[in-house]
Amino acid sequence: MYLRCIECGHTHPPTLRYACAACGGILRVEGESGLAPPPGLPPGMWRHAARLGVTDPGAIVSLGEGETPLLRAPHLEAAIPGFRGELWLKDETRNPSGSFKDRAISAGISKAIELGARGVVCASSGNAGASVAAYAARAGLGAIIIVPAHTPDGKVTQIAAHGAVLLKVPGHYSRSYDLAAALAERHGYANLTTTFINPWAVDGLKLVGPEIRAQLGGRVPDLVLVPTGSGPLVEGVARGFAAEGFAGAAGPRLVAVQAEGCAPIVRAFEAGAERVEAWGMPDTIASGISDPLIGYERDGTHTLRLVRQSGGTAVAVSDDALRGAMRLLARRAGLYAEPTGASPIAALPALLARGLVPEGAVVVCLITGHGFKDGRAYQEMPARIHPVPEPGDLAAVARLCESALAEKD
Ligand SMILES: *Cc1c(COP(=O)(O)O)cnc(C)c1O
Ligand SMILES: [Zn+2]
User: Fold this and answer.
1) Does residue 409 carry a pLDDT above 80?
2) For 8-66, how does the pLDDT look when each residue is reduced to its tens digit (9 = 90+)?
3) Which of 165, 368, 390, 396 is the residue whose CA sits 20 to 30 A from 94?
4) 208-215 and 232-243 are packed helices; what angle lies between their axes, rounded to 10 degrees?
5) 181 in ligand 1 pocket by Cβ < 6 Å?
6) Ligand 1 centroid from CA 369, angstroms
């Protein structure tokens, strides 16, 4: 195993390194450990330990991440005008801390421990921080988590509950990113920020593709819709299919979904640009993808290339569309997602309008984060809640239920 720069090809030994020594480019893990699945771990992605980067089984920190369900959603299909394909939901809310970040953090913290890290630091829009806090607690390591001051309460509470040191920094996420990089250096802590900065963490996302293909009985989906911040999850999906022989245009078309209030990759895609430019101040309810990429625009450029190589596209969705998608997921598919997690559903009408979802298309939406983390948007939705001051009057309660059930939801 070694680290290779995706820009200049320079190779480095397999250590904790965050950028190419020659050009500053993004590093990628090449090779696999070949490790036999260690006994005693909970079910999940370490079943495929051989494909990941950890060579010392004693270093693995797992809470049972990965191997999440892929659910067909017939009632949701019927509720989307013009949709005549198969809609599948990859339910990443089921990961231990409630988002797909657990895949990257389990891989990244395990490798950091193998390489002798004394503690971990992470800049996060909330979910990566919650994941790092949980895995550091499980490993008995100190954790410093840095989040933007406007991070949703549910995520802040979750991080604090695990005992991490939590630093709230005013302004956009990129400021937290810079502070994390500086603190990691000063303390000798591993940086588990989940942009493309830690190649061992990003490497942990590549099993998503093979899981989807196995769950579809060996079929490759036509489209995979990915909520996209800087894009490690897009790369994970692309790499996973490539590893099984479905690289670039032979793999699924990848759709990067962003929020209209923070859409640097969509803007570059639509302009036909080669490079992604940083966004200003994000303004959206989708906290999980509010990443303006200031100072690491190259991450977005890399993701843009992956999307183009797949023959895919990039779509921005409004906050209203996100609320509508959350409602549909909750009421037509039984899934409770945070705004970001519902963004692929919000993107479907735009893809249909562009003719990208032909009849019979197999469409996979990655539902990346749990509704428990940020329930505010649901609280503003009309709900069928009724006070029952006299529960003894069964006939009246039954009448109430009958009329409430008959209302359109
Ligand atoms: C971090 C996050 C994303 C974005 O993932 P990237 O790999 O950074 O592009 C999407 N959804 C949720 C819920 C997230 O927490
Ligand atoms: Zn390089």
Assistant:
1) no
2) 999 999 999 999 999 999 999 999 999 999 999 999 999 999 999 999 999 999 999 99
3) 165
4) 60
5) no
6) 8
For atom 14 of ligand 1, the residue with the nearest CA is 288
Ligand 1 pocket, mutate which of 91, 92, 100 (most atoms under 8 A from CB)? 100
The model's pLDDT over 110-160, given as tens digits with 9 standing for 90+, comes to: 999 999 999 999 999 899 999 999 999 999 999 999 999 989 899 999 999
36-45: per-residue pLDDT in tens? 999 999 999 9
Domains of the chain (ranges, CATH numbers): 2-62+101-201 (3.40.50.1100), 70-98+205-379 (3.40.50.1100)
Q: Is 215 exposed, middle or buried (0-12, 13-18, 19+ CB in 10 A)?
A: middle
Residue 4 alpha carbon to ligand 2 centre in Å: 8
CA of 7 to the centre of ligand 1 (A): 23
Q: What radius of gyration, in Å, describes the C-alpha atoms of the chain? A: 21
Q: Does residue 227's CB lie within 6 angstroms of at least one atom of ligand 1?
A: yes
Alpha carbon nearest to ligand 1 atom 12, residue: 288
Which of 1-15, 22-36, 161-175, 355-369 has the lowest average pLDDT?
161-175
Q: Is the CB of 193 under 6 A from ligand 1?
A: no
